[in-house]
Design a protein that fits this description.
single chain; about 160 residues; mainly alpha; Fumarate Reductase Cytochrome B subunit; two-stranded parallel sheet; 5 helices; 2 strands; about 75% helix; elongated
Amino acid sequence: MSQFLRQGYSGAQIGLHWVIALLVLFQLIFGESMGAVDRAIARGETPDATDQFLAGAHYWVGIAILVLVALRVLMRVVQGAPEPVGSGLQLKAAKIIHAVFYLLLIAVPVTGLLAVYVNEEIGEVHEIGKPLFIAVIVLHALGALFHHFKLKDDTLRRMFVPR
């Protein structure tokens, strides 16, 4: 993807990684409020104020994720990225997990927007993102911990310390 490789990630790349991670975590924890608002409206009830606030936040945080991921991809193209550590199956798994992450980080907000503006039934596709995100996050974290504790390489460290 990038034209050159780096020894590590820049501070901006690391910052974007963790901001996006925190925003995704927020979405996973509080995203259910969007459905609660929709169900209350469908029943002719006034949605709970907290659910309304969190549903609005879910919408805007989703847009923020989409914008920040675009920025992150642009930074990766311009600044480059370090070569993944490992070989064979490990390298393939890392590439697949990262590809799925980027796919989810784009597809989930887009399907959310399509559910709001085009057809609410697309929301069912959007909701599939939650268990997929959880699975990919777990695999990603386990891979980072495997590198750190078993392989004792700097894969995990380079997501905290800019180079």
